[in-house]
């Protein structure tokens, strides 16, 4: 598996181009981002890739705000969990009032986005672009936040979106967030994955579950055992 990471959107979100090996031209795009279409397309062209699907870890605008553009350009579907699908066209539903007021400035005078041409609901397990993608619904940051367990051959990585970062976790104070749900999601991540697996978050550097178990305060029993 070969993974190319780009940083897009005013919030410095990670967009990943994922292909099965260095000779493969088909790729999936995980979290296409916002206001980064030109840089994403330029990287796709530079690498000689052909996107076959978009996949979102969650519905926040900084991760999927450009999904409708890339889905139209490449005539590919976007896979996203059902609870977060309304955020694709009405991103303000998951933003604080202070953040939502800036949407018209970013979106050309509107606070809504066009619908995605082909929207597919993520299931517990499916094949997307030749990859086996198993999902773990992990609410807390958003209702539909999803951890993507992606396998190609004997290689496996986990995209954690804005649930788990290197050294910290995603915010729970936006509409749709819940610290109670976040704790439960983190407990299931802690119990459900091998420690050596590479974790690819929605912001910042990659990490492993072992590294987070050792140093992330939000994966310690003192935090997780709070009701």
TrEMBL record:
Residues 12-203 form the Metallo-beta-lactamase domain. SMART domains: Lactamase_B. The keyword Zinc applies. Its cofactor is Zn(2+). Gene3D superfamilies: Ribonuclease Z/Hydroxyacylglutathione hydrolase-like. It comes from the Bacteria. GO terms for molecular function: hydrolase activity; metal ion binding. Keywords: Hydrolase, Metal-binding, Zinc. This is Glyoxylase, beta-lactamase superfamily II. The lineage of its organism: Bacteria, Bacillati, Actinomycetota, Actinomycetes, Propionibacteriales.
